[in-house]
Amino acid sequence: MKAITNGAIVSLLVLAVVLRAWDFAALWPDDYRGWGAAFYSNVARNHITFGFAETKGAMVPTLNPRNPSEFDFYVDHPPMLGWLLAGSFTVFGYSDWSARLVPLLFSLAVLPVLYAVVRKHYNTGIAVGFLALMAVLPMAVQYGTFVDVQGPIVFFFCMLMLLAYQRFTERPAWSNIGGLLGAFLLGALTDWPAYYLVAILFVHYLLSVRQKDLRILLLPAAAVLAGLAFILYQNYVLSGRLSLNVHYMLNAFLFRAGTEMETSIGQASGHLTTGGWFNTVVFKFWPKLFTIPCLVMAGLWLLAVMAKAAARRFSGADQLFLIFLVFGGIHIAIFRQGAAVHEFWSYYLLPAVALGAALAIASIARLIRKKSHAAVVVFLVIVVCAFGTVCLAKNAILRKNTATQYSKMGVILTSLTTPGYLILTDLEAHFGMDFYVRNPMQFAIVCPANFQLMSQHKDVRYFFFSTLFNDYKSQVFHVLNDEGIQRLDFGNAYLVDMTWFDYSRCKPSLEPPTVLKAEVQGDKFHMEWSHPHPENVAKYRIYTRPATKSFFVNYTDVDGTELTANIPPMASGVMAVVAIGRNGKESGFTREIPVRRD
Fold first, then answer.
1. Beta carbons of 455 and 480 less than 8 angstroms apart
2. Of the CATH numbers 3.30.428.10, 3.30.70.2860, 3.40.640.10, 3.20.20.100, which one belongs to the domain with range 405-488?
3. What is the distance of C-alpha 352 from the center of its chain?
4. 220-273: per-residue pLDDT in tens?
5. pTM for the complete prediction?
6. DSSP state, 27?
7. Is 381 exposed, middle or buried (0-12, 13-18, 19+ CB in 10 A)?
8. What's the DSSP call for residue 582?
9. Separation of alpha carbons 81 and 103, rounded Å
10. Residues 540, 552: contact at Cβ < 8 Å?
11. What is the DSSP string of 562-579?
């Protein structure tokens, strides 16, 4: 039996590796997973380039600083992630996969730790079922290689704290309290969840352990001292002086816990409403990342635990479930703003959802077994197939909908330039693109005079535009051509794989247009298209994406059957043609348009 259990555990660990490493070497996506990963990777790059003495060991996300005087410090979080990434880059080189390697290792290492935590209270079957869900749930898989202060790294240290806490309550030895304090300090160097796990465990100890050991007081004492030390460090980094000024820390906390919120997630008078928060976090994020079947099962188990508590039949095993639940819930309850903007802030609910679902399934199986052992087998087979299918399908869908345009742009820029020379652009800074560009870039140059000023720098050789405005470009062309600076004409490469608009969610009122021709003629981009039912078309619209802002140009032809568009070649390409029906509805498509140069 032990061999079977070990085989199941090893198989689940292998499955976890395969699922998490599926896109291990893919380009950074354009959403916060890629932007954040490139952001923290740049922190590590500055550590390596300037040394920890110059960066003060703190996060310096500044893009391409020429010297420490240009550093812009980011001290909203402790510095551990930047140190780990710098270590990985030093050993394996600067790449997306070597950055992903860090969270991947922690997301895998936490699985046996969690198994040991659960196994202390439940039988092997429940522990293995819990481990299976932790291996395949979309939240665990999609963010298993997530390069961020939130997620697998601090989660590992927190679960290590929980395991050390269990051992201390069983045998209050100095070795166990030392392990607990060590895990906390590593977690505290990574991010804030380690601090409030201390509060949860301390309260649990006071309420549930009969014979108290005063050495447990070392845990909250360590949390207080670590917090004060970080505030001193934070002020030293920002001002060069040791101080307990909490102004910066308080502002950062109030922002993430505050109510100011974008309109996209539900607002009332510019503030995040409770309804808007639930609609986004509970009804949008959770079903996608925890799956509805797991949420239903975990919810049933929560009701069962509440019923047991009301009947005063609460056990130590039930306490573990509640520790998981409070740990994950307190994070998104305190930081409402962050939880409503970033779906991964619910990551710490993973063990509560997985354990609750595993226990609910086990309870249903026990009820069925009283009537038929064969029925139990059938039930478990159905559960494994259903849950496995749902989780794998969710993971596949989430990966399929990942765009990487900024990263591809960076790869193209690297292929077009010689290393060591500065690139000028009006494009707003984007960490995902800069990650792949081996040349330093000067972003956000907003006027021809600034272009001219920057062109005096001896290392400047290249420039490119994201704008469509011809009058602005002509001024800059004149300035930089006089300086002998080379304009980067992306040509074919610029128009390939640069799909910025997704019309897959549209409900077409008529068939989409058909592109007849797309080519570069001299200094113009020429395109022609037609529509199968021109009598239903009021006008056509061309959507383009110049990299930072969306522009569209309206064209209405005479007979409504065909149109020719002239778009300057420095645009990011023509991404979509949309027919506007006479009822005002759109039908369109997104496609890569093959471009031929004369």
1. yes
2. 3.40.640.10
3. 21
4. 999 999 999 999 999 999 888 888 887 777 777 776 666 444 333 333 334 567
5. 0.77
6. P
7. exposed
8. T
9. 9
10. no
11. EEEEEE-TTSS-EEEEEE
